[in-house]
Amino acid sequence: MNRPTDRVRKLARLRAIIDARGAEGLLLTSAESLAWLFDGARVSVPLGGPAVLTAAVDADGSIFVHAPANEVDRLREEELGGGVRIQELPWFEPLPVAADGWLTEGDVVPELRAARASSCPPSSSAIARSAPRWPR
């Protein structure tokens, strides 16, 4: 996978939330948040279903993904891009929950919504490129 990313800016927004709450990190679990962080990645199977991974973002901005073994190759090759550590889980095991000292999405709903609300430059240019062009 080789596409422009604005992940550095997104991680800065997440780190600000983590810092403001004095937490060790934030566990992202929703398809909306995961697709936002990973630049539109398909994080659900089937499309529209629950996310097949979690992303733990720690206070220094590192991302650690947990995903079932049967999804790891697809996620690594097609969806997540670089700079992500992935922990394979047996397909039948549940995805992990937030550890003590970590935030969940439910803890930071308004902050996370605000972080996702405005596009970062590569997202903005991708949206502009995908807009239909009508003949004049």
General description of the model:
This protein has helices at residues 7-21, 31-37, 69-79, 109-117, 121-130; strands at residues 25-28, 54-58, 63-68, 84-89, 102-104. It is of the alpha/beta class and 136 residues long. It has one domain (7-107): Creatinase/prolidase N-terminal domain (Creatine Amidinohydrolase, Chain A, domain 1). It has a 5-stranded mixed sheet with strand order 4-3-2-1-5. Helix 1 (7-21) runs antiparallel to helix 4 (109-117). The longest helix is centred in the first third of the chain and has 15 residues, at 7-21. It comes from Pseudolysinimonas kribbensis. This is Creatinase N-terminal domain-containing protein.
Short account of what is shown:
With 136 residues, the chain is α/β, with parallel strands linked by helices.
Q: Helix count?
A: 5
Poorly predicted ranges (pLDDT <50, ≥5 residues)? 127-131
Radius of gyration: 15 Å
The CATH architecture is 3-Layer(aba) Sandwich
Biased composition (Low complexity): 115-136
Region (Disordered): 114-136
Protein name: Creatinase N-terminal domain-containing protein
Organism: Pseudolysinimonas kribbensis
Give keywords.
136 residues, alpha/beta, Creatine Amidinohydrolase, Chain A, domain 1, globular, Creatin/AminoP/Spt16_N, Creatinase N-terminal domain-containing protein
Topology of this structure?
Layout: H1 7-21, E1 25-28, H2 31-37, E2 54-58, E3 63-68, H3 69-79, E4 84-89, E5 102-104, H4 109-117, H5 121-130
Parallel strand pairs: 1-5, 3-4
Antiparallel strand pairs: 1-2, 2-3
Helix pairs in contact: 1-4
Region (Disordered): 114-136
Protein name: Creatinase N-terminal domain-containing protein
Biased composition (Low complexity): 115-136
